[in-house]
Amino acid sequence: MKRITIDHVSRIEGHAKIVILLNDEGQVTNTEFHVTQVRGFEKFTEGRPYYEMPGITSRICGICPVSHALASSKACDAIMAVRIPPAARKLRELLHCAQIVQSHALSFFYLSAPDLLLGMDSDPATRNVLGVIAAHPELARDGIELRKFGLQVIESLAQERVHSSWVVPGGVNSRLLAATRDRILSELPAAKTIAERTIQFFKGALDNYKEEIASFGSAPTMYAGLVDAKGDLQLYDGGLRFRSATGEIIEDQIAPEDYANWISEASLRESYLKAPYFKPMGPAGGVYRVGPLARLNVADRCGFPKADAELNEFHQRFGAPAHSSFLYHYARLIEIVYALEKMEALLTDPRILEDHVRATAGVNSLEGVGMIEAPRGVLIHHYKVNDEGAIVWANLIVATGHNNFAIGRSVQQVSEHFIKGDKLQEGMLNRVSAVVRAYDPCLSCSTHAAGQIALRIQLMNRSGEVVDEISRP
Amino acid sequence: MSQKKLSIRIDGELISALEGQTILEAAKANGKYIPTLCALEGLTPVGACRICIVEVSGVGRLLPACTTPIQEGMSVITNSPKLTLYRRISVELLLVERNHVCAVCVSNGHCELQSMATALGISTVRFAYNYPKLPADLSHPRFVLDHNRCILCTRCVRVCAELEGAHVWNITSRGIHARVVSDLNQKWGESASCTNCGKCVQACPTGALAEKGRAVEEMVKKDDSIRSLAHRREVQA
What is the ipTM of this complex? Predict the structure, then answer.
């Protein structure tokens, strides 16, 4: 038996390592996906006032603080038992769309484009965002522009790009000015053009990735995502829908407060990341995926013309549901189109400018659950408080958690397909990492960790001696 | 009866001040700035924070300007490398003593401790953080006491006793174990003497006392009303 360790996996958010076990013939026998950080937000928030939670939990992540602030605020809304003002809801949705655009742009252009554009086997020294800028300057510029657009919308609404305190329990803390709305509306067409250009480019290049599409986590699983009553894609609100691997709706319109009836969490020996599964089917059968691919598989429609046209083409090409995790990249681009259309619809609704943007109340319910679609998938914040409003218990289920089992399986599939023999090749190593990257996992979030990623892969023999090693900074 | 006038020097400048004034009062009356943290106009000074320390010629140790009365011919230095060093150390020690996590504090951006740290150029602290495990008292229907943010300046104790006349607050224990307590160490919400006036909250320089429901960065203190109340009280007296 031989053991390969990829430590750390590069170009993801947070720290992970992969262990691949080989038999004496050099065939893959088992793989393990380890998330190596522990953070403890659920524990150290005990005793804090519930209304501090959006501020504290948004520090879980620097990429999607907006998602945590929103899920947390929704849980607090439930504790206050208030219905937030219509303008506040629209503003939160608008902020969330901007968050989806900037986060998806980051994942596609900065983290994954080096693999997609420069090739999985290209020189690791230039297989990074700088390599993309050198080889494809126009595309790199588009990526920077699109992410900038998302971040600037966030800034113009929330005053700060990262970790703002604009979203509060009961709504938001200031109204939208007409001038700000007009400025965002004037910048939308340029963002839409970039989104359109990128998706056309990607569709044109799909033939280059046939092997990846076939082998990157293409094993069917269930999917989970939020949809509205009509079955349309929802990112901010809606009920949770589970769709089977063959496309039937298994459960629909699960309310946030009922999530625990359908989702259970398993603890894994090799990882600090909990692994949720669909409760009625147990941990072995209840594997499901969340995130952009899952959302497009779960929803019937997007509800906007351009996004729906893209969604139809997507399913025509790859079936419904589409199973390859490589298609997460494609799905992300469709969701950018969707988010931009949704932003326009929100901004052209005059009620978004209303003054009343915050509902106030004390503790009216001792428990609250907030559920939204973060860029990487379903995010659940669940709090229990005492009469005084102090947190007595908290549970957070983040997108990467839901995908934990599926990522593990994808790693196994890619390893089996690409690793042959006991000589390590850089391209093989990168494909194993790339399948993890396809999920755009946020391990910082999932273990509620952050930092720079380096990569080291070791091949060890049974007695633990390193027989081969590749590393990169 | 007019008070006797004394002549002192502040930073070399000859100043005429009234007998009975503290160095801080004399400096203020003559447009001289001395940084303070625990002092609040209208409340009895206690010299708790040691930020207002000054050098006095002929005295071998640093003296708090807020509690040291002026004397004829006194020469005071309000700013020097030594003073800046000691003021910094005082603020750093406040920062390490408890959990002052500005990023998620209700008073972020509106906090006197934070502004003082910024003014003194504190970007890092030279001591190890203490990370005590401290509770927050959420029992009051309108207000919250968070011991994590308390610097024991006793403004709340003084404003409640001297202006409101209720004397709900006090300090229990000594040294590192000292805590603000309401009544006889009961929960604030169970205090029989609290009038719910909120002066303590407005007087508090940090996020230790705050209005319930204020999210991160939302607690802006209004201590002007305390100053004006104190001023009216002096006029009546």
Answer: 0.86
